[in-house]
Each structure stands twice: as structure tokens, then as C-alpha cells.
Amino acid sequence: MVGGTGGARVETGTGTSPARTATTRTSTTATSTGTTAGSTRRQVTRRLLASAAVAVMAPLVGASRPARPVAGTWDGPGDTAFEEIYRGRLIRVTWTHRSGGAGPGEWHVTVDDRPLHLMRRADGTWLSVVDHYQSYRTPLEAARGAVDELGPGQRLRDLAPGPVGDELRRLHMGGAHSGVHA
Amino acid sequence: MAYTRKDVGKLTREERRRFVNALLTIKRRGEYDDFVRTHIRYFTADGENGLRPAHMAPSFLPWHRKFLLELERALRRVDSSVTVPYWDWTSDRTARSAPWSEDLLGGTGRRSDQQVTTGPFAYAHGNWTLKEGVTDGAFLTRDLGRSHDPIQLPTKSELEWALTDPVYDVAPWDSTVTKGFRNKLEGWGTGRGSASWLNHNRVHRWIGGVMLGAASVNDPVFWLHHAFIDLQWTRWQRRHRGARYLPATPPGPGNAQHGRILARHQKLPPWDVTPDELEDMSRIYRYA
Lengths: 182, 288
Prior knowledge:
The structure holds 2 protein chains of 2 kinds. By secondary structure, chain A is α+β, with helices and mostly antiparallel strands. Chain A has helices at residues 8-15, 35-57, 139-149, 164-171; strands at residues 25-28, 80-86, 89-96, 106-111, 114-115, 118-120, 126-128, 131-136.
């Protein structure tokens, strides 16, 4: 199984989003690039909202502290976002569509506005750079898992993959590096 | 003349001192942080399109074998008597066992922030400031046994379960395979939570702190853990005479794993060496 294969990921990623969804805020930006893309975004939003309802009925494990809604307006990059305060940290999860039809898009996750690098496992679960030896069902759960392991006062350092993808591609046979990195 | 890697519990006081001194020396020179960076750089997960040289792939064992050899070479340039000891976590199972002594790795982190405050790698001594990490934390962290929700180290029988598998690895050569020595040892299980962490992976989790993340090399126990993992490969070979690294040849162009894993005769980046060339180490080192 290869990463970045579609909008289905959106449902996978959020359909199981945990109880904290009740306190997350979903929003869309107004940077429409065309009818098709806009339509897709609306679908994504609906899925997010629908999954929020499901999540309220079926609270999941993973969050042990109450979260509260975040005030303010989301004006970062990306089409759809939800965010929450978890154990005193601001987690923001964004789904960004790619322009020009080059694949479906990718997740971006930040913790306290620092990017959290995520990786996809072949079984569809997610790993974070903070916790490389356990995978989670959704990017949000992976972000919470990372927060659980962050010591007090510690902030993420931006460990962007940098030249790695290119380096490996150059060394060994082609294939575009997947866009599932957050 | 092959050198010997020893059980960490059997090192003399002088051997412990020399090992620690060599680590602190290469850290001071900046060499150690290159190892941290390399491990971060080559961690590719199997749900992505990139080549996986180091994890979730057959080359997990030879990649880490070469990684250990490079570290050991750096240590031996400082002190030619030093070799990397191994930590048998099936025997030394507590937070007070051999590796965690005051004159070797120090103990678990303090409760408030997991900071390691004992032993030569305690931040306050000024010799072990983390430069490459997932967070901006400058000190080594550990939470031995995972205090907030305790787990146990893998048992002898769990390790045995891996060693009895007669096949090195099986398709699709990733973290989802439930057969084959490699993943049973690497430890990507099915399901969620505690039951899904096996052998190698479970040890990273038992230690906690920086050992959980991409920069796990920041904790020198990384090497003692991986020396013991490396020893299991040797034990497995002895038990299954003639069994080899698999796959012998790369998956073809139509295969989903094409270009994503390394076969027996392909070079392991970033080095100029193949799994085939790393299967027999008997002329370089042996385990006591």
C-alpha cells in the first residue's frame, strides 16, 4: 500500500477521530481555486462534521484531559482544519489539496505551531517523529500521542525531511516521494 | 583478529570507564551527532513511497549492523580496547539492572520532566547536550518501565518466538508481515497498544524519553540494545544453518515493493556495503 492515495484517507483519518472532536473547530478557507476543488473541499468538510457526530456518540480512547474550543480564526495554509487544546498544547490538523491535480493532498499537523512530522504505515496507521515505535489510527491520535511524550516546556524542533527523499531517490530507483508527510 | 562484544553486566569497572570515555570523546568532537542525524534521515515508513533502508524492511538487521560497526569504529579510534557491549534485556530486566549504573548509563529520568540526572550522561555534567533532536530539549530523557502505565521488557519466550522462525523475512517485506524472523524481532505487531509492541520496538518503549523518537540514538543505550538485537541475528543463523537474508533478488517492476526495499546484493545507503557482505561478521567481531 502506498501513501497519498486519496480522499478516502480523509474519512479514514477523521472518521475515527476521538471524543475531543466535540471541542474542535472545523473551518474552511476561502481560497477556492476552482469549482471542482471547491466541491471536493466541501465534501471533506461534510465528512469532518459527520465524523464529529459519530465521535460524540462513540468516544474513543487517547485523550485523558478535557480539551476546550479554540478562539480565533484559522488563517493558515490549507483547505480544512480542526484544532484543539490537548494537555495544554494546541494541536492543529490541516488537510491540504494539491494544486494542478497532482494527487489528492496531504495532512499537515502542528503542535503549538511547530510542524509535527508524520509518517504513514502500510496498514494505514500513523507514526510521529516523537514516537517512532507506535502507530495510531489517525493523524490527530498520532499528534496526541506525541503530546503525551513531550516533556513540560519542550517544543518540537522542525525536523523537515529535507534532502532525504531526494537523496534516496537519487541513490535508488525513481518514484516520487509520497506526499503524506505532514 | 576478531574483537569481542561482551555482556554489559560482565564488564569490569575499567571497561565501563573506557567505554563511557570513548562515547564522551566522540560526542565532544561532534562525531556522535552525525550518528543521530543518520538515524533520523534513514527512517522511512512503509506507508510511503520511499526506499526503506533501516526500518520496516528486511534490511533492518544489516543496516543497524553496519551502523553499529561505524559507531564502534569511531569509539575504537579513541580507544582501541573498546567494543560495544550488549544488553540482554531478557535477563537484566529492571531499572536497576546493569546498563543503568552510575558509572555506565545512569538511571531513569526524574519524574517532573524525565531528565536523566544520574551517571555520565546527565545534562548537569555538561558532556551530553543533545544537539539533534525531535524537540528543543537539550537533556537526555528516560522513563524506564513507563511509569505512568507500566510495561514489561520482552521475555525470553517472546524472543524465542522470533528465533524459531526458519525464514528470514517474507513478502511484502514490511511492518505488516506476521511471519519471518526479521519482523518478529523488529517488533511491528498487529492490533493496538501494549500488545502490539514486540521485542525490539517494545524495548524502545520501555526505555521511553528520547528512545521513543526519531533521535533515539541520543541515548547511548541505543547501541547496547542494538548489539543485543544484532546478536539475535547471529543466533538465528546458527540455529537455521544455510538460511539467508531475503529477498535474494529485488522485487520486479510490477511489485508494490519495487524500489522500496533492498535485496541481498543491493547496497545499503548511506554505505557501500550489501546485506550479503554483512551476513558473516566472524572475522570482525564475536559475541561472548
